[in-house]
Design brief:
- This protein is α+β, with helices and mostly antiparallel strands.
- Helix content is about 25%, strand content about 25%.
- The chain has a six-stranded parallel β-sheet with strand order 17-16-15-14-13-20. The protein has a six-stranded antiparallel β-sheet with strand order 21-22-23-28-25-26, covered by helices on one side.
- The longest helix has 18 residues.
- It is globular and about 85 Å long.
């Protein structure tokens, strides 16, 4: 076996893979082999390493990297350099400390943000090389407690993966630990509001969601669940662990009612002030910690104190969990310093809470802020209290997607914005549409009476669209849960920047606010107000090579271009790749988030042969349903693998094939019909024991599509003179070729109207 560790009096260099190298420098010659807050594993398949060494220089060579180090000197731009070679043929000379091309990672919080904020570095770079600095993290001892380091003053990891971003992430997760599997309910719709509810008003609210047929999966009770008006001698009322019985007289009954409706329950906590004498749990805590109860001696918050830490969980949190709390929203905002210099109390809270959840239940979960690299092991992330503004919305798609560059997949934003700002129902709708296509869809607002997000309180048209999108989010649960499994087991994030799949196309890096959403979809949220000329919102969209189908509209786009897409309030650009297979819950209003749907609706798009594996878990058991569309044989097959006893006994599959004309279906199915208006062949199949194969004769999507109706609709909506509309419409009808119609649009002195009409004609792929 080739030597992989190279050590001198003050340095140690470990080649972990052909593209990942650990570099340590220590003044006293001591080095650290234990795990850290960030790094949990340094065992990889053996790399291929050769070495050339002189008294002054160490040169290490792998198939991808040539590392040159001036021995015994501190690491800097003069003493460390890399020559890197990548499969694409790209080469680069890199010097230590160069971060110019870093593609960024994420940030601790968006508290108070009104638009863009600075992001920390990630592990991916346009020039192919990055450094992750692990020098200041604490060591994790055998019992998972943080302890101070000895030895290395510099401890960093060189990632030299070029543009193979997926491989870099895979090795990052192997180095730092996998993202845990989220419980299914976390992927549905969350209701959250900073508001002084009562048991009655909250349950009435949930009832109204049900009456409106809007599915919810998580009930967030913000801080007013606990006592907030406390005697002055105890300080402020932000920290609290005692139910306010004036509002919630029987907490166990209240949470059981929420559970009966299929909702998980989380409570907001601000732990900074510890456990004070007015708390119900105080006598238990005081007895364990031997506090002077007569003097009301508080249990000061200090997770470095083992006795406090044990009491914090066993005497305070566990009894409340036994009453019905499923997980905790840790709303820590009291700084980054603890009783131990350099140890972040937020990281401690995330670490110990998640560790406690893992030991106590099958589906551990917390909601908290990001606390640095490695935080992906403690999902979910709460991004903080943003200002309600278009600028805040415009930053969130980019910020959420870019977080994948540091392995942080599960951001939960205050959808709709948190505070201040102004009334703008269009903004609220566009934010919700992004929320539906973001990792966690948690509606939230501040304590203002005027910022609440109940859909039915909005203008009827806006309200109707909001309700439809919230139902659609719940219908996405089969797709989202499968992506969740892939994140956990394979290390593939749900939201991916465009450059992950198209790293050599410049436009992929410029398309900041669009992203891949799971394996099949591309999303470009609309983050600016509608244009008054067209009454349409717009987003510039980079379409990679190949055909792309609008999920919500009957149109096809030819890729390898960029185009501005225009949408009314009812839509945002959500595109399925050619051959996409997308599983949905066919009856989202009827399925609780912790249940498996009785009917799966499969959206299937023409194109190259494709296969989709739907993964479903229940009570620790798994069933995989594999749907395959073979373009050559025109066969559609469905089969199950694993424990299919967890599936509903009357499970049905409803296939929606996007086609131009009716197709002939040969095989065992309950029904098959063609829907002319939506251009779909709908085939319903009963779940079989293992496999069912259907022949789809004539399955194709013509390259001829009509755009006349779309052009008419845009002209009708436009705020321009009717006479001008008539002139455009007549000339449009007279022109027979695409080129002439494009010329007609380009002559308009109304640029947004021209672009909107151009998009309609672009989806019409007729030959000249």
């Amino acid at each position: 076996m080739a030597k992989t560790i190279f050590q001198g009096a003050h340095y140690r260099i470990t080649v972990l893979t052909n593209q990942l190298i650990r570099m340590e420098y220590s003044e006293d010659g001591q080095f650290e082999d234990r795990f850290t807050q960030t790094v949990l594993n340094r065992t990889f398949d053996p790399p291929k390493v050769t070495v050339t060494e002189t008294n002054e220089q160490l040169a290490l060579h792998t198939p991808n990297v040539a590392l040159f180090y001036e021995k015994e000197k501190k690491f800097n731009e003069y003493t460390v350099s890399l020559d890197v070679r990548f499969e694409t043929g790209y080469t680069h000379h890199w010097r230590f400390g160069d971060t110019e091309w870093n593609l960024k990672g994420t940030t601790r919080t968006l508290d108070g943000a009104d638009g863009e904020v600075m992001l920390e570095d990630g592990i991916l770079s346009r020039n192919g090389v990055t450094v992750m600095d692990d020098s200041t993290t604490f060591i994790l001892d055998e019992e998972n407690h943080p302890v101070k380091r000895h030895g290395s003053t510099t401890d960093c990891y060189l990632f030299a993966y070029g543009h193979d971003y997926f491989k870099a992430l895979k090795d990052f997760y192997q180095l730092t630990g996998q993202t845990p599997l989220l419980p299914r309910y976390a992927l549905g719709n969350w209701w959250s509001r900073y508001w002084k509810y009562t048991e009655e008003s909250y349950l009435n609210l949930v009832e109204q969601f049900q009456e409106e047929k809007i599915p919810l999966s998580v009930s967030v009770i913000d801080m007013d669940w606990h006592l907030t008006e406390i005697p002055e001698r105890f300080g402020n009322g932000w920290t609290g662990y005692t139910w306010d019985k004036r509002l919630f007289p029987q907490p166990k009954r209240f949470m059981q009612a929420l559970h009966d409706k299929g909702l998980a329950v989380t409570l907001n906590v601000h732990p900074a002030d510890g456990i004070r004498a007015f708390e119900e749990a105080y006598p238990r805590v005081a007895q364990r910690l031997q506090l002077n109860q007569a003097e009301e001696e508080p249990a000061r918050f200090d997770l470095n104190d083992e006795a406090f830490r044990v009491s914090y969980f066993e005497d305070v949190h566990h009894p409340m969990e036994e009453e019905g709390v499923d997980f905790w929203w840790i709303d820590w905002q009291q700084g980054t310093k603890s009783g131990v210099a350099g140890l972040d109390p937020l990281w401690q809270l995330n670490h110990y809470h998640f560790l406690d959840q893992t030991q106590r239940k099958q589906d551990p979960l917390i909601l908290s802020r990001y606390a640095g690299p490695g935080s992906h092991r403690y999902p979910l992330g709460f991004s903080g209290d943003t200002i309600i503004s278009w600028a805040s919305l415009a930053f969130q798609p980019y910020m959420t997607t870019t977080a994948s560059n540091i392995g942080y997949s599960w951001w939960s934003h205050d959808i709709g914005g948190h505070m201040l700002g102004y009334k703008d129902e269009e903004l609220s709708l566009r934010w919700l549409q992004f929320g539906v296509f973001s990792p966690i869809n948690r509606l939230h607002s501040s304590s203002s009476a005027f910022t609440s997000k109940e859909p039915w309180t909005f203008e009827p048209t806006i309200a109707g669209v909001m309700k439809d999108y919230l139902r659609f989010r719940h219908s996405l649960l089969p797709y989202l849960y499968t992506a969740n499994v892939r994140t956990h087991e394979v290390g593939v994030p749900l939201m991916q920047p465009m450059y992950y799949r198209y790293p050599e196309i410049e436009e992929a890096y410029n398309s900041r606010n669009q992203y891949f959403f799971g394996s099949e979809l591309l999303v470009a949220p609309i983050t600016q107000p509608i244009n008054q000329e067209t009454e349409l919102g717009k987003a510039k969209v980079f379409l990679p090579p190949g055909d792309w189908f609008d999920l919500f509209r009957n149109c096809r786009y030819e890729g390898d271009t960029s185009i501005t897409m225009y949408r009314s309030l009812t839509d945002i650009p959500v595109l399925a790749r050619a051959g996409a297979i997308i599983p949905l819950d066919a009856t989202p209003e009827e399925t609780k988030a912790n249940e498996l749907p009785e009917k799966i609706r499969w959206e299937i798009f023409p194109g190259k042969t494709n296969e989709y594996e739907l993964i479903e878990d229940l009570a620790g058991n798994r069933c995989t349903t594999r749907v395959r569309l073979d373009e050559a044989t025109q066969q559609l097959s469905i089969e199950t693998e694993g424990d299919n006893k967890i599936l509903p006994s009357n499970r049905q599959h409803e296939f929606h094939l996007r086609v131009t004309d009716e197709v002939q279906v040969v095989g065992e199915c309950l029904s098959s019909s063609y829907q002319e208006q939506t251009k779909e062949q709908v085939i319903i199949v009963q779940q079989s024991e293992r496999q069912n194969i259907l022949s789809i004769v004539g399955f194709a999507y013509s390259k001829t599509q009509t755009s006349e109706q779309a052009v008419f609709d845009i002209l009708k909506r436009a705020n321009i003179e009717n006479q001008l509309k008539d002139q455009i419409w007549q000339r449009y009808g007279d022109e027979t070729s695409k080129k002439k119609r494009f010329n007609l649009f380009s002559q308009l002195s109304l640029p947004d109207l021209a672009q909107a009409l151009f998009e309609c004609e672009y989806t019409d792929q007729r030959e000249e």
